Amino acid sequence: MNDAPVPYLVTDAWRETADTVSLTLTPAGAEALEPFAPGQFAMVYAFGVGEIPVSVSRIGPRELVHTIRSVGAVSAALCALAPGAQVGLRGPFGTGWGLERAVGQDVVVVTGGIGLAPLRPLVLAAGADRQVYGRLNLLVGARTSEDLLYADQVRAWAHSHGPLHCGATVDRPTPGWWGHVGLVTTLLNSARFTPENTTAYVCGPEVMIRATARDLVHRGLRADRIRVSLERNMRCATGHCGHCQLGGVLMCRDGPVIGWDRAESLLAVREL
What are phi and psi of 99, to 5 degrees? Predict the structure, then answer.
């Protein structure tokens, strides 16, 4: 883990949605960050503007892909970058999803909105090592079809007859929408898993995390077999500033991925 930003080069940039961009980053010199695990994040520095925490959305041999939604000055500056620009990276930080917990078990991945980005590396890793896991399920929710991340890839997964069962739903359908309409939790009815032999991974808005985790527990999953990502107000990534504290947990240091057995009481206080 690096304390000082390491220069990385933007080698590709493309728009995912109206307010979200993916950047492929490769080391600008000989120095590179240590390998990332799915679920970990980097502090991404826009020179002259500032830095923000961003989970990795794809992990390559040397390159990293970060999917960034423009919601503030730093994220807007990052979303405006073109190939050839440089950023600074620190990391890796945080806990990973812990895919090794699911060896020999069914896997259920439930995402909402930008939450698909940090879970995509886990889906790709599980799919690439198919014989290690049981049945694979990816359930994706978005506000509209225009807000769906990786739309072509999700549609291909949903229409494939391969080992990955993928369902997608939106709150408000638009002409040409091919998936379901409604809450992402409704997709659990068609997912293929045995609750007592399943590990679940959930990321999205906190209201969606609560509803999904409670539904999974109701269906028979143990709370400690449900892994959720909580990314409240992370700033320093080193546990010093305290902005991401929830109870006795500092999300940048002790999370952002934790079990629902710990997260449920922490989320009793709603995010402002």
Answer: -60, -25
